[in-house]
């Protein structure tokens, strides 16, 4: 059965038999014509309404989307800015550092580390060249003293700096010998600790000093542990093959560092240079006792 037969559709060229044609009354035709015109007017108004409102809807949606995107980006930017503003950065100094050390002192430089462990073809360990380690000698001691700076790495801290650095504890850190407040860049404290551990390895050459015994050495180890974990240096040290030894770490890699010399010069200038802070008079003994 054909599609037309099943659904009884008339063919597209079907015409009514002549005898079945009927004329519509004139009144009905007139009414139909008026209704048709009214419908056209209504449709025209509806079309104009839709044409007017579609752009408004599109603009409204676009504005909301744009506002959301701007707000999201602004939130991220402000969040990052606040984080940097609150904590500082490696290249410009962190907030707790910039109380004393201005941002321009922090200068970055790149250097390849030296002094790793090497091996002879027979597998014997050989220490890489270094000014700071090896058999004890006056030359090695001079090298360490040059980077630690002796007493020159301790400088005067102003009262305003002390209050900003230590808050409610600022009086606790008053220097009762020299007056005012005394501080050092922790970099020099770490170097001092490392030098003491170096000396402890050779008590046959470096006799134990008072207050520099086992307790002090353990303090140094734990302080250096915290500094290393805090700084979180993430340069990759590769494993290298050595005959008779196998794989061994090679730490002689490129690192991005702060310029040590610039920080050292700043510390010396704070000690007795043109930016040294004058010390306040020492408190009398009765005032010191009353503050205990």
Automatic annotation (TrEMBL):
Keywords: Membrane, Transmembrane, Transmembrane helix. Pathway: Mycotoxin biosynthesis. The chain crosses the membrane at residues 57-78. Signal peptide: none annotated. It holds the Pfam family UstYa. GO terms for biological process: mycotoxin biosynthetic process. Belongs to the ustYa family. This is Uncharacterized protein. It comes from Oidiodendron maius (strain Zn).
């Amino acid at each position: 059965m054909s599609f037309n037969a099943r659904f009884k559709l008339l063919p597209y060229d079907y015409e009514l038999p002549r005898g079945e044609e009927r004329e519509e009354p004139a009144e009905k035709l007139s009414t139909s014509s008026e209704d048709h015109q009214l419908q056209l007017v209504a449709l025209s108004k509806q079309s104009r309404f839709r044409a007017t409102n579609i752009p408004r809807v599109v603009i409204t949606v676009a504005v909301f989307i744009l506002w959301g995107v701007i707000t999201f980006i602004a939130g991220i930017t402000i969040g990052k800015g606040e984080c940097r503003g609150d904590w500082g950065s490696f290249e410009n100094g962190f907030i707790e550092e910039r109380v004393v050390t201005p941002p321009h002192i922090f200068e970055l430089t790149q250097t390849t580390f030296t002094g790793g462990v090497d091996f002879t073809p027979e597998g014997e360990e050989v220490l890489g060249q270094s000014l700071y380690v090896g058999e004890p000698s006056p030359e090695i001691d001079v090298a360490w003293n040059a980077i630690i700076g002796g007493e020159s790495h301790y400088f005067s801290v102003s009262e305003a700096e002390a209050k900003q650095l230590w808050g409610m504890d600022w009086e606790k850190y008053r220097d009762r010998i020299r007056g005012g407040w005394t501080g050092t860049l922790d970099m020099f404290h770490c170097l001092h600790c490392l030098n003491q551990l170096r000396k402890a390895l050779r008590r046959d050459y470096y006799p134990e000093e008072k207050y520099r015994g086992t307790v002090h050495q353990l303090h140094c180890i734990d302080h250096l542990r915290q500094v290393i974990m805090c700084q979180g240096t993430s340069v990759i040290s590769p494993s290298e093959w050595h005959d008779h030894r196998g794989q061994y770490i090679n730490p002689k890699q490129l690192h991005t560092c702060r310029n040590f010399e610039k920080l050292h010069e700043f510390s010396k200038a704070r000690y007795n240079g043109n930016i040294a802070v004058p010390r306040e008079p020492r408190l009398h003994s009765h005032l010191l006792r009353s503050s205990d």
